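Title: Prediction job returns without error message
Component: structure pipeline
Severity: low
Priority: P3
Assignee: unassigned

Description:
Job completed but the reporter wants confirmation the result is attached to the right record. Sequence as submitted:
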Amino acid sequence: MSSESIHVHKLAGCSPSPLAHYLKALGILRLVSEQVDPAARGWWRSDVFHLGTQLDRDELEHFFLNDYKPTPMTAPWNGGSGFYPTDNKSGIEPIEQSVSERFAPFREAIAVARSVVGGLDAKPDKGDAKNNVIARCRLALRDESQAWIDAALVLDDEGEPSFPALLGTGGNDGRLDFTTNQMQRLVSLFDVEAPDSGPHPESVPQLETALWSESTATLEGGAIGQFYPGAAGGPNGTSGFDGGVKVNPWDYVLMLEGALVFRSGLARRCAADALPQASAPFAVRSSGSGYCSAASVDAGARGEQWMPLWPQPSTLYEVNALFREGRSRIARKPTERATDMARSIARMGVARGVDRFVRFGYIERNGLANLAVPLGRFEVRERKHQELLDEVAPWLDRLRRLAGAKNAPAAFDRVHRACEESLIKCTQRDEPQSFLRLLETIGAAEDQMLHSPKFAAENYATPAPVLSPRWGQLILDCEDSPALRLAIALVAQYGPLQSNQPGPLPTIRDHWVPLAGRQFDKGERGLNLGPNQCGMGLDLERAMLAVVQRRLLALGRGAATKGADHARYFPLRLSHHRLGARLSDIEAFLQRRVDDGRLLSMARGMMSVRWPRLSIEENNKDPSQDPLGGLATFGVLRLALPTGPVALSATNQHAVRVNPIVFHRLSTGDLSRAIDLAMRQLSAAGLRPRVRIAIGSSDYARRLASAMAFGLSDQTFARLARSLTQPELSQSRRREMEADAMT
């Protein structure tokens, strides 16, 4: 071994995925550090593991071929472990009969395990018998054998075992016992009958393939379990109908050696009740979302594990510390689910130099086989706006429980997974559009609750949370589009629904969601869906017609209240005048150049934003600069539904009293009669329309009627009035003009 320089080895055979190759990298670092070079360091670069050590290439290969001492791994609590009469003994017996120093620790561990199960002629049954064997093994086995047990299982205070998904159920996966296969692979690599247990000739190229991926090695039949899905065999695994399982024995041996880094510590064990299996490093509950092949059945009991990648050279001690802590936090609590882990990573909630995570899910594929499927990668870097997700995360947790409730409609699982998918995308991208999409999926989930009112009430469903104005500011930073601006102009409105409205004035959301404060309005038969909820279940055009109709009913109810402002004006006002629709956007809507479905989806999602408290700097173009184009008819009709006095100037204001019949005529398709009534209404208020006649189909008339639901700013009302009307002249001013004309 050279002590003068450090050799950096690019181990091309070790990559972040499949999981077998990731674990192989950890195994190489662990064995080199523990058995030959304590100062060795490992790190990840360009998806390849790098090893810095005093060993050059020949010395590294020589170590594994001639000096490496395998870690003793036994699992006498499992059937098929080699300790019982019907078990396969092709691995355990040759190692027991070996005489080399290389296998001395293994022989000792096997002897201790045999003493534990000496009185048993068959594998212990599940329950107390198996737990008793596990407990006795923990007491009897020491050193490296103890490290294997700590990685394979965890015992609680009462002696009940729980099993990290990485090593199946205590070192086996179904009928595949990992320790038996480990011993069989060792026998195929080394001549265990020889005094020095040197390597077989074929193990040399196999090692070169495992380390450097430079030569073609002969693979042998054998199972590799969940760690390498691509080598698991099965239908279409190779040419023909069914492929056999082929494995490089070095891959298997080094993979299990690396799994010992994943020892579950006491600190993590204390939180194990929050996880679907033993609290292993970076293990969380699965979500069944956030990747292309996601399905609800993927959210199984084995959960997920996020494998860290670090770019800085690290010793085994530092790597062990990373996995021993093995935790991340979000909102001062340990992460429990994949969505929590993604949020923690996006907020740099994981320390010790990790720059990326590879997400693996332990998922049933190819029948009932459990495979460690790579589900994507997540960069560890601070992303913007992540604190906003704290406002919706608790509600999404309640939605998850609702989707998993007994007799829950299948649609609840679908909308829940869509919400989780959107949330995970928010943790990966800084774009405001990702957060807008999350709001849309939340709105769709809330709609699903309204479509199942009895189920929602019985299972204590809650409406989407009211979100802070910071969401509104972020939405305004989204890519500018007519649909988005119109959606904002629709939802950023409020006003009374009855005379002398007490408390906060209802918003547009009240026409979709039955609310009692911040909870659903519930009754004996479920949610109390009343007449105010006139927009739910309708397409955009019909929903907006229903909303305007409902607001006009509020106007009629207030007519008897003397001096009531809402008895004169349309009872919908913008929460901020700069959130009103552009006239060019209204024109695009009338010409059907806007996707109604997308507009409604955005509007439903944004209804929970607290727009009335929003304070922003306007970046959009001044609406007074928008050309009117073909909006003369719309303008006259909209002036007949003002939300307040139409101010042509600071001293020239006109009170146009709303006549609901104008809208009723328009909504039935009678454009001619509607425009005639609107012109009379404006003239009575002192604004003479320049438009004298309007022609259009009944469909266009209904489209015009639905456009009345969009909020316009006071400046836009003034712009319409100045362009489409002229003030009535007083009698004295008319006489002066006539005299000037005669002169």
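Comment from assignee: result matches the submitted record. The CA atoms of residues 83 and 114 lie 7 Å apart.
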